[in-house]
Amino acid sequence: MLNSEITGKKLQGQCFRIVSAESPVKLYCCYVLIAVLSIAVIALSVALSLPTRRQEQTSIKNIPANCLRNWIGFGSKCFYFSENTSNWTFSQNFCMELEAHLARFDSDEELEFLNRYKGTFDYWIGLHRESPEHPWMWTDNTEYYGPVLIGGVEEYAYLNNNGISSARVYADRRWICSKPSSYALQCQIPLLSF
Ligand SMILES: *[C@@H]1O[C@H](CO)[C@@H](O)[C@H](O)[C@H]1NC(C)=O
Ligand SMILES: *[C@@H]1O[C@H](CO)[C@@H](O)[C@H](O)[C@H]1NC(C)=O
Does ligand 2 have an atom closer than 6 angstroms to the CB of 121? Predict the structure, then answer.
């Protein structure tokens, strides 16, 4: 930048001399010089701004989840940790109103994340069963094959400090909702074309 400024000043000096000569040809030459100089400055600023833009694109790529305010992104999902408490049914309805469902985890990493963020509170998650003789089901009615055994003999599962336990539907607890991140849903295709 400094170099081009100095060059610019030199050229301006030359231009004044040329203008004072009052020759139309030299005046034209001066305009051409100014035009060339302006193009050089524009090209230089575009060149300088390019690496920044490339960095922005890379950092967007590294953000895996795009979640609403009050939701926390992890992997390709968004999680909502409630502060209120209620029964399992109310909690599931609350999540469904936000186009989500009571939390589902699909990997050890996701379960670990939930355990880390839950702190010391107990939270309803999206597992229930018809009776102790029935298998545990996710809210979309697929069977639970998770790595963690669910303790207790009740029908509704919640996360506690020792893993996952069960309680009756009407117990009041905090709850966690989960849903696929909007970024994972909407932005995969444009990202691939970068
Ligand atoms: C929590 O419960 C209170 C009282 O029922 C309600 O007014 C508030 O909207 C609830 N907050 C959330 C985030 O659901
Ligand atoms: C769950 O809580 C809601 C709201 O407080 C209440 O209307 C409903 O009867 C409760 N359901 C059960 C099964 O306890």
Answer: no
